[in-house]
Write a structure and sequence with these properties.
Helix content is 71%, strand content 7%. Strands 1-2 form a two-stranded antiparallel ribbon. A two-stranded antiparallel ribbon has the order 3-4. Helix 1 packs antiparallel against helix 2, helix 1 runs parallel beside helix 5 and helix 2 runs parallel beside helix 4. The protein is globular and about 55 Å long.
């Protein structure tokens, strides 16, 4: 009984950490009114974390079983990310959002495996890239390739 309580507390803590580490990325996307924001990014992080925790709890240390879960997750995250990318006449928008969705899934996965250092680095790096590298984006004429709004990532 005590092991179940300990496991439950550990799992809830991991899910909470994944949620908190996704918040800066989610907030940045939400503030810039992107197609994915607070709900999408936090859900991607905690669901990725949750799937991997559940897989380990259900299948034990089976590399084959975990590999199948990973394959499904990567396919699903790719599908979600592709929905954020829009191609219009001469421009492509949403690639930074799609990449951030992918990265946020990696944050959740790192937390699920107890690699908090990797999770924190991925979260901070993603936020920094979105926030501070936008002015250095490649441009076509006077408008950025990905967006016509100034400073958009």
């Amino acid at each position: 009984m005590m092991d179940n309580l300990t496991d439950t507390a550990a799992h809830l803590l991991q899910l909470a950490v994944a949620f908190v580490l996704a918040l800066p990325i989610a907030w940045d996307r939400e503030k810039k009114e992107r197609s994915a924001g607070l709900r999408t990014f936090t859900l991607v992080a905690i669901s990725t974390c949750g799937f991997l925790i559940a897989a380990r709890s259900s299948f034990g240390p089976s590399a084959e079983a975990e590999s199948r879960v990973w394959q499904g997750l990567l396919t699903g995250i790719g599908f979600i990310g592709s929905g954020a990318i829009l191609k219009t006449e001469g421009s492509v928008r949403g690639t930074a959002t799609a990449a951030s969705i992918w990265n946020t899934a990696a944050v959740g996965a790192a937390v699920a495996y107890g690699n908090y250092d990797i999770a924190v680095f991925l979260s901070v790096a993603n936020f920094a890239v979105l926030r501070w590298l936008a002015p250095f984006k490649a441009t076509q004429g006077d408008t950025p390739v990905e967006s016509s709004r100034a400073g958009a990532a």
